[in-house]
Design brief:
Blueprint: E1 4-10, H1 14-28, E2 33-40, H2 46-54, H3 57-62, E3 63-68, H4 73-83, E4 88-91, E5 96-98, H5 103-113, E6 117-121, E7 125-128, H6 138-142, E8 147-150, E9 160-163, E10 166-167, E11 171-174, H7 175-181, H8 194-204, E12 208-211, E13 220-222, H9 234-258, E14 265-267, H10 275-294
Length: about 300
């Protein structure tokens, strides 16, 4: 029986999806997982590929796929929630690739040991602040006075999970959370702020929301990470702005009430197998930081190393 349902929406991305599924076959074939691919009206050969992969020896044990009609990512993830059988749901993208054997066991241990955590981001979270001015543009959503990314206070953020207000994908959520507070709100279609709204509903439901940067540890890679830092298109900003405004209209009273609270942290539950990777990545990070200092650059934290 699966303990983790991995939900993967996909659209016209067959070659990259194949790499994604290959990574799960390579690194998690001994784990209690199921993969649910939500094929969102693909016009390439993705359906035929998924049909063949599902019938393979590995696919019969681990893979299911369902069809949607170009309904977008929010509705695809909700379809995945309805199809999932495990007590934990992992929201994953088709351009994310698993890289280690220790990652899934650590996630399962984390949710077993810390029942108060309802939602865990696997890359970074954000802290949200009371609005200092009205949200009239996409830029207003992202100014530091309103929202700041964080992976927790360093350098212990290599070893600890940190409480945050909202998250970005990929993330793991308890089935019990979805059953109590509901799935992603489809009012946030087509894109963004849906998971921020879910994070606040989960906290209202009695759980906490946390983050840890497992990508930095080498647990997985994300092709989309190569575009971070690039400004989105005007079309994208226009789609996102109403959702950001909706989020703040809905949650500003809660943000003002909750923001001053002390935020918790928790020790990771790593396996021995993960320690060599932790030491290697930590050493590289330390060398980069020393190099920047020697070059006269500021040693202050970058956005993904925030100490908020």
């Amino acid at each position: 029986m699966a303990n983790l349902s991995v939900i993967i929406p996909t659209f016209n991305n067959r070659a990259v999806l194949e790499r994604c599924l290959d990574s799960w076959e390579r690194y998690a074939s001994d784990q209690p997982v199921e993969l649910i691919v939500v094929e969102d009206g693909c016009k390439d050969d993705t359906p035929a590929y998924l049909d063949a992969r599902e019938k393979s020896a590995w696919g019969r044990r681990f893979l299911r796929w369902v069809h949607e009609h170009d309904v977008n990512q929010v509705r695809c993830n909700n379809r995945g929630f309805r199809e999932a059988r495990a007590p934990l749901f992992l929201v994953w993208d088709d351009d994310m690739f698993l890289e280690t054997h220790w990652f899934v066991p650590e996630l399962l241990r984390t949710f077993e040991v810390y029942p108060e955590i309802g939602l865990l981001s696997l890359i970074r979270g954000l802290q949200v602040y009371p609005l200092q001015r009205p949200i009239e543009s996409w830029e207003d959503l992202h100014i530091p006075e309103h929202m700041r990314p964080t992976i927790g206070a360093g350098p212990l953020n290599w070893l600890r999970l940190s409480e945050v207000d909202i998250v970005i994908r990929p993330w793991v959520v308890r089935r019990a959370c979805i059953e109590r507070v509901g799935p992603l709100d489809e009012a946030f279609c087509p894109i963004e702020w849906d998971e921020a709204d879910l994070a606040y509903r989960i906290r209202e439901g009695g759980w906490l929301v946390a983050t840890h940067n497992y990508e930095r540890l080498g647990a997985f890679t994300h092709l989309g990470a190569t575009t971070l830092g690039k400004l989105p298109s005007e079309k994208h900003r226009a789609m996102v702005l109403p959702n950001g405004q909706l989020f703040h209209q809905r949650w500003q009273p809660t943000i003002r009430r909750q923001h001053p609270r002390n935020r918790r942290s928790w020790w990771r539950r790593p396996s021995i197998d993960s320690l060599p990777m932790l030491l290697r990545q930590g050493a590289r990070y330390g060398l980069r930081k020393v190099s920047r200092m020697l070059q006269g650059n500021s040693p202050s934290a970058r956005p993904d190393e925030s100490t908020t």
